[in-house]
Specification:
63% strand, single chain, mainly beta
């Protein structure tokens, strides 16, 4: 059984026991979160598609780590570099960032 759930504007394929890295949620370590924006449910081959969401379906997750590494002990993603240049003008800018993430563990799928 798996579901497609929307968490902070992103869609994830979720199964029981799976770990996900989602954009920073601001929840404490060990907190239990419920996501009710379930878009699709596949229960042993029987697919239910929501319009826009499936009624009564939700995903229960536990925050595994906000305590990875980096600033404030947060989990950080890959480094993204943004480079801007204008030809023959001497204009060059290099900027970058690393996105903060929260790691969650899927405890239960209610469908």
């Amino acid at each position: 059984m798996y579901v497609i759930v929307e968490i902070q504007g992103q869609q994830f394929k979720v199964e029981n026991g799976k770990k996900l890295f989602v954009h920073y949620l601001g929840a404490e370590h060990g907190a239990v979160l419920e996501f009710d924006r379930v878009l699709l449910v596949d229960k042993d081959g029987a697919v239910t598609v929501g319009t826009p969401t499936v009624e009564g379906a939700k995903v229960v997750c536990e925050v595994v780590s906000n305590d990875g590494f980096g600033k404030k002990g947060l989990v950080k993603g890959e480094r993204v570099l943004v480079f801007k240049k204008k030809r023959r003008k001497g204009y060059r800018r290099l900027n970058g960032h690393r996105q903060y993430f929260t790691e969650v563990l899927v405890k239960e799928i209610v469908a």
